Amino acid sequence: MVLGAALIFAISDATSKLMVISLPPLEVAFIRSVVMAVITVGAVIWLRGPRILYSRHPIRQGLRGLAYSMASVIFVTGLGLMPLAEISAINFIWPLLITVFSMLLLGEKIGIRRAAATVVGFVGMLIIMRPGTGAFQPAAFFPLASAVCWALAVTMTRGMPQTEAPETTMAWSALIMLGVTMVAVPFVWVTPRAVDLALGVIVGLLSAFGHALVINAYRHAKASSLAPFNYIQLFFAAICGYVYFGTVPDRWTIAGSMVIVAAGIYTIHRERVRRGED
User: Fold this and answer.
1) Contact by Cβ (8 Å): 156, 64
2) CA angle 154, 207, 159 (to 5 degrees)
Protein backbone atom coordinates (compact mmCIF):
# COMPACT_ATOMS: atom_id res chain seq x y z
CA MET A 1 0.00 0.00 0.00
CA VAL A 2 2.83 2.41 0.77
CA LEU A 3 4.55 1.61 -2.51
CA GLY A 4 1.28 2.10 -4.36
CA ALA A 5 0.74 5.43 -2.61
CA ALA A 6 4.26 6.54 -3.55
CA LEU A 7 3.54 5.83 -7.22
CA ILE A 8 0.19 7.61 -7.01
CA PHE A 9 1.72 10.71 -5.41
CA ALA A 10 4.42 10.84 -8.09
CA ILE A 11 1.80 10.66 -10.85
CA SER A 12 -0.29 13.28 -9.05
CA ASP A 13 2.71 15.64 -8.83
CA ALA A 14 3.51 15.14 -12.50
CA THR A 15 -0.10 15.85 -13.44
CA SER A 16 -0.08 18.99 -11.29
CA LYS A 17 3.08 20.09 -13.09
CA LEU A 18 1.18 19.75 -16.37
CA MET A 19 -1.58 21.96 -14.99
CA VAL A 20 0.71 24.80 -13.90
CA ILE A 21 1.74 25.25 -17.53
CA SER A 22 -1.61 26.96 -18.17
CA LEU A 23 -2.95 27.78 -14.70
CA PRO A 24 -1.56 29.66 -11.66
CA PRO A 25 -0.22 27.25 -9.00
CA LEU A 26 -2.70 28.55 -6.44
CA GLU A 27 -5.59 27.76 -8.77
CA VAL A 28 -4.22 24.26 -9.33
CA ALA A 29 -4.07 23.78 -5.56
CA PHE A 30 -7.65 25.10 -5.26
CA ILE A 31 -9.08 22.70 -7.86
CA ARG A 32 -7.27 19.82 -6.18
CA SER A 33 -8.52 20.89 -2.75
CA VAL A 34 -12.15 21.02 -3.93
CA VAL A 35 -12.02 17.42 -5.14
CA MET A 36 -10.11 16.24 -2.06
CA ALA A 37 -12.49 17.99 0.34
CA VAL A 38 -15.57 16.49 -1.28
CA ILE A 39 -14.10 12.99 -1.30
CA THR A 40 -12.42 13.11 2.10
CA VAL A 41 -15.16 14.81 4.09
CA GLY A 42 -17.85 12.80 2.30
CA ALA A 43 -16.09 9.51 3.01
CA VAL A 44 -15.38 10.41 6.65
CA ILE A 45 -19.01 11.37 7.32
CA TRP A 46 -20.28 8.28 5.51
CA LEU A 47 -18.01 5.95 7.49
CA ARG A 48 -18.03 7.59 10.92
CA GLY A 49 -20.97 9.99 10.95
CA PRO A 50 -20.98 13.83 11.09
CA ARG A 51 -19.89 13.91 14.76
CA ILE A 52 -16.40 12.80 13.68
CA LEU A 53 -15.85 16.33 12.35
CA TYR A 54 -15.99 17.68 15.93
CA SER A 55 -12.55 18.41 17.36
CA ARG A 56 -11.66 18.96 20.99
CA HIS A 57 -8.53 20.81 19.90
CA PRO A 58 -9.61 23.17 17.11
CA ILE A 59 -6.61 25.48 17.45
CA ARG A 60 -4.15 22.61 17.00
CA GLN A 61 -6.16 21.23 14.11
CA GLY A 62 -6.28 24.68 12.56
CA LEU A 63 -2.52 25.21 12.81
CA ARG A 64 -1.86 21.72 11.48
CA GLY A 65 -4.25 22.29 8.58
CA LEU A 66 -2.65 25.65 7.79
CA ALA A 67 0.83 24.10 7.69
CA TYR A 68 -0.48 21.31 5.43
CA SER A 69 -2.10 23.87 3.13
CA MET A 70 1.05 25.97 2.86
CA ALA A 71 3.12 22.87 2.11
CA SER A 72 0.81 21.93 -0.76
CA VAL A 73 0.57 25.40 -2.29
CA ILE A 74 4.31 26.07 -2.07
CA PHE A 75 5.16 22.67 -3.55
CA VAL A 76 2.81 23.18 -6.51
CA THR A 77 4.38 26.59 -7.07
CA GLY A 78 7.81 24.97 -7.25
CA LEU A 79 6.54 22.39 -9.74
CA GLY A 80 6.23 25.12 -12.35
CA LEU A 81 9.85 26.17 -11.89
CA MET A 82 11.93 23.00 -11.49
CA PRO A 83 12.21 19.45 -12.89
CA LEU A 84 10.02 16.94 -11.06
CA ALA A 85 12.85 14.68 -9.88
CA GLU A 86 14.85 17.60 -8.48
CA ILE A 87 12.00 19.24 -6.60
CA SER A 88 10.91 15.87 -5.20
CA ALA A 89 14.43 15.10 -3.99
CA ILE A 90 14.80 18.43 -2.16
CA ASN A 91 11.32 18.11 -0.70
CA PHE A 92 12.20 14.73 0.80
CA ILE A 93 14.33 16.46 3.40
CA TRP A 94 11.09 16.58 5.42
CA PRO A 95 11.65 13.29 7.32
CA LEU A 96 14.89 14.72 8.67
CA LEU A 97 13.23 18.00 9.53
CA ILE A 98 10.72 16.04 11.61
CA THR A 99 13.64 14.95 13.78
CA VAL A 100 14.56 18.60 14.36
CA PHE A 101 11.00 19.75 15.04
CA SER A 102 10.30 16.80 17.33
CA MET A 103 13.20 17.92 19.47
CA LEU A 104 12.20 21.60 19.44
CA LEU A 105 8.43 21.26 19.73
CA LEU A 106 7.82 17.90 21.42
CA GLY A 107 10.89 17.74 23.64
CA GLU A 108 12.15 14.45 22.15
CA LYS A 109 15.77 13.60 22.84
CA ILE A 110 18.01 13.15 19.80
CA GLY A 111 21.27 11.25 20.06
CA ILE A 112 24.48 12.21 18.36
CA ARG A 113 23.94 9.60 15.62
CA ARG A 114 20.52 10.89 14.62
CA ALA A 115 21.82 14.45 14.76
CA ALA A 116 24.75 13.50 12.51
CA ALA A 117 22.41 11.74 10.06
CA THR A 118 20.28 14.87 9.90
CA VAL A 119 23.32 17.00 9.07
CA VAL A 120 24.34 14.52 6.38
CA GLY A 121 20.85 14.74 4.91
CA PHE A 122 21.14 18.51 4.66
CA VAL A 123 24.48 18.04 2.90
CA GLY A 124 22.65 15.89 0.35
CA MET A 125 20.15 18.69 -0.15
CA LEU A 126 22.99 21.18 -0.73
CA ILE A 127 24.51 18.83 -3.30
CA ILE A 128 21.27 19.06 -5.28
CA MET A 129 20.82 22.81 -4.81
CA ARG A 130 24.52 23.69 -5.37
CA PRO A 131 24.38 27.18 -3.80
CA GLY A 132 27.16 29.52 -4.86
CA THR A 133 27.45 27.97 -8.32
CA GLY A 134 25.96 28.89 -11.67
CA ALA A 135 23.67 25.87 -11.43
CA PHE A 136 21.92 27.19 -8.31
CA GLN A 137 18.24 28.02 -8.78
CA PRO A 138 16.45 30.28 -6.27
CA ALA A 139 13.36 28.20 -7.07
CA ALA A 140 14.95 25.42 -4.99
CA PHE A 141 13.73 27.25 -1.90
CA PHE A 142 10.15 26.33 -2.80
CA PRO A 143 10.50 22.57 -2.17
CA LEU A 144 12.61 23.35 0.91
CA ALA A 145 9.92 25.67 2.30
CA SER A 146 7.28 23.07 1.46
CA ALA A 147 9.30 20.45 3.33
CA VAL A 148 9.48 22.73 6.38
CA CYS A 149 5.70 23.23 6.38
CA TRP A 150 4.99 19.53 5.85
CA ALA A 151 7.41 18.51 8.61
CA LEU A 152 5.65 20.94 10.94
CA ALA A 153 2.28 19.42 10.00
CA VAL A 154 3.53 15.89 10.66
CA THR A 155 5.12 16.93 13.95
CA MET A 156 1.86 18.52 15.07
CA THR A 157 0.07 15.32 14.09
CA ARG A 158 2.44 13.33 16.28
CA GLY A 159 1.78 15.72 19.14
CA MET A 160 -1.99 15.59 18.72
CA PRO A 161 -3.83 14.13 21.75
CA GLN A 162 -5.11 10.57 21.37
CA THR A 163 -8.67 11.87 21.62
CA GLU A 164 -8.39 13.15 18.04
CA ALA A 165 -9.30 10.48 15.49
CA PRO A 166 -7.20 10.31 12.28
CA GLU A 167 -10.39 10.86 10.28
CA THR A 168 -10.98 14.12 12.14
CA THR A 169 -7.52 15.35 11.27
CA MET A 170 -7.96 14.35 7.62
CA ALA A 171 -11.28 16.17 7.32
CA TRP A 172 -10.00 19.32 9.02
CA SER A 173 -6.91 19.41 6.80
CA ALA A 174 -9.02 19.06 3.65
CA LEU A 175 -11.48 21.75 4.73
CA ILE A 176 -8.81 24.20 5.85
CA MET A 177 -6.90 23.82 2.60
CA LEU A 178 -10.12 24.41 0.69
CA GLY A 179 -10.80 27.53 2.76
CA VAL A 180 -7.28 28.93 2.37
CA THR A 181 -7.15 28.44 -1.39
CA MET A 182 -10.75 29.63 -1.85
CA VAL A 183 -9.96 32.97 -0.20
CA ALA A 184 -6.79 33.54 -2.22
CA VAL A 185 -7.65 32.11 -5.65
CA PRO A 186 -9.87 35.03 -6.87
CA PHE A 187 -6.75 37.21 -7.03
CA VAL A 188 -5.06 34.94 -9.59
CA TRP A 189 -8.07 33.28 -11.26
CA VAL A 190 -7.74 32.18 -14.86
CA THR A 191 -10.73 30.49 -16.48
CA PRO A 192 -9.67 26.85 -16.78
CA ARG A 193 -10.15 24.80 -19.91
CA ALA A 194 -12.10 21.56 -19.80
CA VAL A 195 -8.84 19.61 -19.93
CA ASP A 196 -7.53 21.55 -16.93
CA LEU A 197 -10.63 20.70 -14.90
CA ALA A 198 -10.32 17.05 -15.93
CA LEU A 199 -6.68 16.98 -14.84
CA GLY A 200 -7.63 18.69 -11.58
CA VAL A 201 -10.22 16.02 -10.84
CA ILE A 202 -7.63 13.33 -11.59
CA VAL A 203 -5.13 14.98 -9.23
CA GLY A 204 -7.72 15.25 -6.47
CA LEU A 205 -8.83 11.64 -6.88
CA LEU A 206 -5.25 10.38 -6.91
CA SER A 207 -4.33 12.41 -3.82
CA ALA A 208 -7.36 11.20 -1.88
CA PHE A 209 -6.75 7.57 -2.88
CA GLY A 210 -3.05 7.84 -2.06
CA HIS A 211 -3.74 9.19 1.42
CA ALA A 212 -6.31 6.45 2.00
CA LEU A 213 -3.69 3.83 1.11
CA VAL A 214 -1.18 5.38 3.52
CA ILE A 215 -3.69 5.48 6.38
CA ASN A 216 -4.65 1.84 5.84
CA ALA A 217 -1.00 0.80 5.59
CA TYR A 218 -0.17 2.38 8.94
CA ARG A 219 -3.08 0.54 10.51
CA HIS A 220 -1.45 -2.78 9.60
CA ALA A 221 2.23 -2.11 10.31
CA LYS A 222 4.50 0.06 12.44
CA ALA A 223 5.35 3.48 11.06
CA SER A 224 9.08 2.82 11.46
CA SER A 225 8.77 -0.34 9.35
CA LEU A 226 6.96 1.43 6.52
CA ALA A 227 8.80 4.76 6.49
CA PRO A 228 11.81 3.64 4.39
CA PHE A 229 9.50 2.60 1.55
CA ASN A 230 8.33 6.20 1.12
CA TYR A 231 11.65 7.01 -0.53
CA ILE A 232 10.71 4.94 -3.58
CA GLN A 233 8.67 7.99 -4.57
CA LEU A 234 11.91 9.65 -5.69
CA PHE A 235 12.43 6.85 -8.22
CA PHE A 236 8.83 7.11 -9.39
CA ALA A 237 9.19 10.91 -9.69
CA ALA A 238 12.23 10.46 -11.93
CA ILE A 239 10.29 8.01 -14.12
CA CYS A 240 7.27 10.33 -14.31
CA GLY A 241 9.51 13.28 -15.12
CA TYR A 242 10.96 11.37 -18.05
CA VAL A 243 7.61 10.03 -19.30
CA TYR A 244 5.73 13.33 -18.92
CA PHE A 245 8.41 15.87 -19.77
CA GLY A 246 11.43 14.02 -21.17
CA THR A 247 13.69 15.19 -18.33
CA VAL A 248 16.45 13.07 -16.80
CA PRO A 249 18.00 13.84 -13.36
CA ASP A 250 21.61 15.01 -13.57
CA ARG A 251 24.39 13.36 -11.57
CA TRP A 252 24.18 15.97 -8.81
CA THR A 253 20.49 15.31 -8.24
CA ILE A 254 21.09 11.55 -8.19
CA ALA A 255 24.05 11.85 -5.80
CA GLY A 256 22.21 14.25 -3.46
CA SER A 257 19.11 12.06 -3.50
CA MET A 258 21.16 9.02 -2.49
CA VAL A 259 22.66 10.96 0.43
CA ILE A 260 19.22 12.16 1.59
CA VAL A 261 17.75 8.66 1.34
CA ALA A 262 20.68 7.09 3.20
CA ALA A 263 20.47 9.69 5.97
CA GLY A 264 16.70 9.30 6.24
CA ILE A 265 16.78 5.52 6.43
CA TYR A 266 19.55 5.61 9.04
CA THR A 267 17.53 8.08 11.11
CA ILE A 268 14.54 5.73 10.96
CA HIS A 269 16.80 2.83 12.00
CA ARG A 270 18.13 4.76 15.00
CA GLU A 271 14.60 5.68 16.07
CA ARG A 272 13.61 2.00 15.96
CA VAL A 273 16.66 1.11 18.05
CA ARG A 274 15.77 3.82 20.56
CA ARG A 275 12.24 2.45 20.89
CA GLY A 276 13.48 -1.13 21.16
CA GLU A 277 11.59 -2.28 18.06
CA ASP A 278 12.54 -5.33 16.01
Assistant:
1) yes
2) 15
Domain count, the chain: 1
Counting Cα atoms < 13 Å in the Cβ hemisphere of 266 gives 17
- Within 10 angstroms of residue 206's Cβ, the number of other Cβ atoms is 23
Position 183, amino acid: V
Residue 106 sits in which domain range?
Answer: 2-275
CA distance 116 to 94: 16
Per-residue pLDDT, 23: 94
What's the pLDDT tens digit per position in 206-230?
988 888 888 778 777 776 677 778 8
**Of residues 233, 231, 219, the one with CA closest to residue 265:** 231
262: number of Cβ within 10 Å: 15
Query: Which region, left, alpha or beta, applies to residue 131 given φ > 0 means left and ψ of -120 to 50 means alpha?
Result: beta
Cα Dmax for the chain: 55
